[in-house]
Amino acid sequence: MVALEPILWALHDSPVVSTTDRMLLAGLAEKADADGCNAFPSRRTLARIALCDVKTVQRRLATLLQQGLIALGDQEAARYIPAHARPRVYDLQIPAAWYGPERLARVNQDRTHRGLPPLTDETRAPLPPAVPRVQRSDKGKPLRPEPGGGGDCQSPPANPAESDGRGDSQSRGRGDCQSRQGGLRVPQPSPLTHPPTETPAAPAARSADDARRATTGSSARDTSGCAAPTTTHPAPTPDPAPQRPGPGSMPTHLAEAIRTVEAGWPSDLAALLPTHRPAVLRQAVLEALDHGRTPQQLVDRIRRRWRAHG
Fold first, then answer.
1. Could you tell me the pLDDT band of residue 133, with boundaries at 50, 70 and 90?
2. Maximum distance among all Cα pairs of the chain, rounded to whole angstroms
3. Of 29, 41, 70, 224, which sits 20 to 30 A from 198 (CA to CA)?
4. Contact 89, 72 (CB under 8 A)
5. Where are the alpha helices (DSSP H) in the chain?
6. What's the confidence (pLDDT) of residue 223?
7. Are the C-beta atoms of residues 1 and 304 closer than 8 Å to each other?
8. What is the distance between the alpha carbons of residues 70 and 37, in angstroms, rounded to a whole number?
9. Quick one: fold of 4-113?
């Protein structure tokens, strides 16, 4: 289950001024616990959320670490992922005062169940305000010169004697840009230009290569010596999008994993659910397994959420 507190803090109250930084914090918060800990999405996932490349994700995460908005967490939380593909575990440094008394009590109760110390104003101090963006040096300056500032765009003075020595940069009274009367002629159309409705005739079959002649006897005779028209092939249809297998065609290991998760639910939670599990629950379990979690980790996470939020 997704904790809402880190997502709300990342989207509304995180002290950042960059859209990329805010989306990176939101991507971490989506995978974090209610206290902001144990967030380890892959860099490719963060790049997809923030609409940037992986190198930008690396640079911005390093900046967030320097600013104190995130910190390195318990790397053992991702020990089930192979070492060559294991991402770093981060903790969002959400201030304890941000939660408020009631939510902070629930978060600390959940941390107590996990054997962690409670959050306080000393361990999660308020964060400094966001660093303002550096203004551009040319902000507010006109892009074009003021009228009368000189240059080639000015017309010559009325009296040539009043010229201030600008020289050849100014144009003459009439200039060469004016055409003489009768000097422009309408060009004749090219003899190679064909009307839009005219199409070139097809070449004769006798002058064409053998590879272009019709291969079937009846169709070749009907053309009366002309090459048979080429056959247009229909455009290939795209392959349908892959779909998740239904309950009847589900692999054995996925079905066993779903049964393990359902068997580990708290009894009071299982009593509230119908006997026939809806497909949306099975879909949620499969998506969580696709993100790299094991069935036992899902059971532990559901139990913690149920104890904390009920």
1. confident
2. 103
3. 224
4. yes
5. 4-8, 19-30, 43-50, 54-67, 96-99, 101-113, 217-222, 252-263, 267-272, 279-290, 295-309
6. 42
7. no
8. 10
9. Arc Repressor Mutant, subunit A (1.10.10)
